[in-house]
Protein 1
Amino acid sequence: MKGHVPTPDDLADHIVEKLFRENPPAAGETILYPGCGKGPFIAAVERYCNTNGHPIPEGVAIELDPEHLTAARERHADLPVEFQERDFLGDVADLGEFEYIVGNPPYVPIEGLDEDEKQRYKQQFNTAIGRFDLYILFFEQSLNLLAEDGRLSFITPEKFEYVDTGSELRKRLASRHIEEIEHVAEDAFGELLTYPAITTIENTSPGETHIRLRDGTERTVDLPDDGDSWAPIIRGGVPEMNTGATLDDVTTRVSCGVATGADSLFVQDREAVPPQLIENGWTYPTTSGRQLQQNDGPDSGQLLICPYDEHGNLPPEDELGEYGDWAEIHRDRLEDRSCVEKGKVWYSMHENPPLDDILQPKILTKDVTAEPQFWADREGEVVPRHSVYYIIPKDHVELDELRAYLNSEQAQVWIEAHAQKAHNDYYRMQSKVLKQLPVPKDLGQSHQATLPGLD
């Protein structure tokens, strides 16, 4: 099985302790090790049972990689475990049910699957929606094999708690008792940053869930069972903000900045840009997310050399003028880009910038940040790059008023409760999340007044 990540022994011990907590194994009970790899959980179960004087449950270990399976079989030949070389995401109805299931499912995003795999999984699994990951399917398959009153402990990325792709899984998990979710250290697997969470399920009626966060915070919560994101509740709740309007209602665009495909060429310090390009309108002020934060605003001192007109149209080659002269000098580098290989014109950028929208007064924010922060481009002259999100208010919405709200504690708490996590526990800004941000009452009233059919 692709996506295998070895589980350190101390982490496997920690997970197994949760699995057997309050319900240690008894004689005749069974345990399943899906995607067992080389058997770190088999060893952890043996250590737990020997230390605490409990019988080792009869196990079935499933692994598709023959080398890993051989290693596991050799290491644990003296234990009551049946080793099977098979695809856990295939037909496993013959396995029966298990009192315990434990593991570290493979992390494989949809991009790592071929078309046949994608179609097969979508037909077989209810949780295979959107840009699903294999670990989500492992959850569903395992829940189907969990006996009544049985217990399951998995370590997976925490993303299933809040991404749209995890909505169906959240419904299925919430139909049981999610006993605990613990967010463990982001470097629990060494240099592989996965933001892991240990989820412990008891196959009984739903009940309260104990939450343990990386900063040591603990709380007991009732998780929603309708598929909505769990992030606001897990992270501590959000202020009541039922205004009836969202950021999407009071803006014309919330988008990621421009991807040039070659920033080292298209972006240069103002002093390094040929004067004729500046004089004849082939450049715009620009900023990256890092510069936005370093400079406390969009004035970076750099320019974007841009072949597009003010409407985002790419002129034909014989109308490029000074830009064409500059581009010809760098033609080899411009042609040596993946976007050109895929059919883009050699002197174009990776994507056509929607300059009609971008060249307006707007609000800017860094795409990955320790805390949400927003700046203004009041003149509408800056073309933000791909590491910046830009927000265009509607005509009736005052830019500085909206920016002040976005920088308020109320908005920041909401965004931090809903945003996806990135490295170092930073927050990842995304259009679909920002658009859902409730706006304050006065902006909401302005929105209502502009709706068709209202005076």
Protein 2
Amino acid sequence: MLRRLISAALSLVGLAVVAYVWFFVPLGQRTLHEHALRIAATEPAQELGSEARDATERVVEHVEDEWRSRYGADAGVTPR
């Protein structure tokens, strides 16, 4: 019990350190958070996000179709 409590506390401390570095420690002129936001705003990143969203939708449709073919149309899959 005590070991799990210490492990959880150390995990929280580690998470706090990572969050502090991510938001407050500058790497060059900007923090990691600011760098990530600038990268995400680029056209290639936007295109990647769009393609990932499309691929996700195709996977969801495939899984729903498989579910319906195995368990029937009324087996708990709600249409989107």
Protein 3
Amino acid sequence: PGEAYGYLRNGRGLSDQWADSVVVRPRTTERNITVHKTLVLGFAISILTLIIVTIIAVLLSVKFEECTGEPSGRPASGNHTKFNQTRDSQVHHRGEEHGIQPWKLLRLPTSLRPIHYNLYLTVFMDNFTFHGQVSIEFECLNSTRFIVLHADRLELQRAIVYTGERRRGALKVHRQFKYPANQVLVIALNGEMEPRRSYKVNLTFHARIEYELLGFFRSTYPQLGDKRYLAVTQFSPTHARKAFPCFDEPIYKATFKISIKHESSYLSLSNMPVEVSEPDEEGWVTDHFARTPRMSTYYLAWAVCNFTYKETLTNRGVTVTFFTINLMYYWILRR
């Protein structure tokens, strides 16, 4: 009986232990569930916060892009204004190419096609700067009120847009600005240009003659123990925009007529022969070159230098001129 009592007693003890374990396990599971709910709630709040921050960042970036892509919005006075580099994100105009801002495209819009350039340059070799005026005749293929040209590192002063040969047909320029991201200049008119009509835009600008191998740049060479300077161009493939505003893509072909004013101690060269050389004020000369064939901007070239030259006449009566640095004197000096 004693053993049986002990057995039952021990059995009840085991049963009680099992019962306790059964009671404890649900409480442990409930605590785990509570902890998991807290983690899930925290994770959901983190995701929601991240989404809100991302939306705010996107909105701020869009607003910043609008600020950098939009001009100050100040209307032009008369037919020309000075270019304003400031941006104003509050300026919005109706129907910007049906909601598309053409200056943000990687390629120039196809609404316009250049026909001819008249380019006049004044080159200052003492401080390596140049001033320029360019008149671009172009045809409007599709109605638009935007003129988008390439221009890089150019300080633009004024723009005039007119129809035909007479400036009294000038169109009102509403605003103009540069979009550096795509190296373009934008001229927005008050009204749209009509298809199948020719227009002209006149631009005045100035820039530095940089010491690099792109655009209109300067270089040096030795002669008679001195350092000589020259200013030459390298426009291929897309660097004509550093020398003058233009449609600087190979698909846009036009004719060019160049005039270069320089000190009389230098001479100027270009793609075509000099038609007329006019003496200006004391110590200056203006060379007017013949019109080029129809070609892309990267074929255009000019130079202001102290080269020497020799001419010869071919059997067919064609004059061939060779320009070169006079290295003979330098070679004798080194000997």
Protein 4
Amino acid sequence: MMMHPGWSNGWGLWGMWLAMVAFWLVPLLLVAGIFWLFLGRDRHRGDRGSEPAVFDENRRALAVLKERYARGEISREEFERIKDDIMKS
């Protein structure tokens, strides 16, 4: 019975098939991982860059508002109206 030379040890064709898949899959996954890493950093950097600044401004504005109310410069109604405006922004 004549057999194909690559079938003699059982890993000939499978080894070549796995090598071919690895040859194309590994570089593709590396490139995709690099893109994901850089795009993920930029996306998160943008999120972190804008929200804390707004949060800090709102916190400072509320602190000033509370001080003005404590000194009696504004009424309770004005305090509530301005506080609502600050919280909406």
